Each structure stands twice: as C-alpha cells, then as structure tokens.
Amino acid sequence: MIEILTTGGTIDKVYFDANSQFEIGNSLVPELLAESNIRDGYEIRELMRKDSLELDDADRQAILAAVRASKHGRILITHGTDTMTDTAEVLRGVTDHTIVLLGAMQPARMRRSDAVFNIGYAWAAVQLLPPGVYIAMNGEVFKAGKVRKNLAAQRFETMPETD
Q: How far is CA 31 from each of CA 21, 49, 109, 115, 120, rounded to the nearest angstrom?
C-alpha cells in the first residue's frame, strides 16, 4: 500500500476567469491515477492546499509529522515545484520510508501538463527505490540534497559537485 499525501502546488491549480488568476483547487490525484490505470493499492490524504511558495516551516513540519505517523513504508507527496527541494531537505532525516515528491510544471487541468506522466513515473519510482527521500520529475529521479530547480530551463537537475 502506498500513501499519497497532497499539499497543493501547480499540479492542483485551477484558473479562475473572474479574477484572472490560478488558485489551488481540489486535488486531481484520483483522476490522474485513474488516467494512468492505477486503480488500487493506495490511500490519499490531503494535508493542505497551498502554493509551495506559501509553505512555511510549520507546514514542512506538518508534512514531516504526517510521514512519520504513516503506517505505510512507501509515500508519494504531491508538492509545488518552487520549494519542493526545501521540503525534501526537511524529510531527509526519515530513513525507514521510501518517499517520493512529485509535482507538475503546468496544472493537471491544462491540456499540455506533465502531471499524468509525473504521477505515473513517481508511482513506479516509489515502488522500486530503496528507503530514502527523492524527487521524481519529468522522467528523472533525484536524491534529496543533490537536486535543484533550474528556473530558466523549467526542469530539475542534479546539483554540481563542490570541492
């Protein structure tokens, strides 16, 4: 059984014409899983509905507490991409679970979103990886602490080694 914790982020954004902006809506994770032909073997728990730029230390501690309280050894966390690496850092101390964070560069409700691919990819990754904390985005898996978001390229990449 895989526990899926939702926190919001771009993957769940909805465009509101009335005020010409995106806001976090109901999670589309159940629909994304169904579209990926993933029908069972998971439990979904909504933790929050926030843009990752709005997450603070208390939110990250709540995510950490939810992970530590989980009865499942494999956990997916949907998360906004802007501060996903910060949350992964907070979770790095959890060594007895396989934790994979994922998100989307475009809202799942948009036609050209990477959300379906990312959730399917993360689903496979969380089942295959050993215990640890990872980010799975756009066909790549990164270990927490060794990844950054490249804003210009709109992708995640391994951080260069420092001397």
A: 23, 17, 10, 11, 12
Q: Using alpha carbons only, what angle is made at residue 89 by residues 118 and 62, rounded to the nearest 5 degrees?
A: 85
Neighbours of 2 (CB within 10 A): 19
Q: In order of start, what are the domains of the chain with their CATH numbers?
A: 2-158 (3.40.50.1170)
Q: Is 95 a catalytic residue?
A: no
pLDDT, tens digit, for every residue of 69-122?
999 999 999 999 999 999 999 999 999 999 999 999 887 777 788 999 999 999
Look at residues 105, 104, 160, 97 and name the one whose alpha carbon lies nearest to residue 134: 97
Q: How far is CA 128 from CA 62, 108, 124, 141, 147, in A?
A: 26, 25, 6, 11, 20
Q: Which of 10, 81, 83, 98 is catalytic?
A: 10
Which residue from 103, 104, 99, 101 is spatially nearest to 127, judged by alpha carbons? 99
